[in-house]
Amino acid sequence: MSKRKIGLVIMILAIFIIGIGIGLKLNNSELNTNLFLIVGLILNGIGLLILVTAKKKTDKQIEN
């Protein structure tokens, strides 16, 4: 898999994890679901970083 596809998969996974955290919070407000939200945000940041670095490399290859 290319870096771009890996980044997209990580971002989609992060969205599902954030959705689970929000769903659990709405279902039972007594649960501490901050861990789901934090992990989802961290994964989203990692996926975005991978996408940006993959984009920069492809831009450099096109210029050369």
Written description of the protein model:
The chain has helices spanning 3-27, 34-63. By secondary structure, it is an all-alpha fold. α1 (3-27) runs antiparallel to α2 (34-63). The longest helix has 30 residues, at 34-63. The chain is rod-shaped and about 55 Å long. The two termini are 23 Å apart. The model has no long low-confidence stretch (mean pLDDT 83).
Short description:
The protein has helices spanning 3-27, 34-63. By secondary structure, it is mainly α.
Short key terms for the protein model shown above:
0% strand, 64 residues, mainly alpha, 2 helices
Please tally the β strands and state the result: 0
Gyration radius, rounded: 16 Å
Helical content stands at over 70%
What composes the largest sheet?
none
Low-confidence segments, given as residue ranges, are none
- Principal-axis shape equals rod-shaped
Q: Supply the helix-strand structural class.
A: mainly alpha
How confident is the prediction overall: mean pLDDT? 83
Q: Write the H/E string, N to C.
A: HH
Strand residues, percent? under 5%
User: Tally the helices: what do you get?
Assistant: 2
Instruction: Give the termini distance in whole angstroms.
Output: 23 Å
Keywords: Membrane, Transmembrane, Transmembrane helix
Protein name: LPXTG-motif cell wall anchor domain-containing protein
Transmembrane segments: 7-24, 36-54
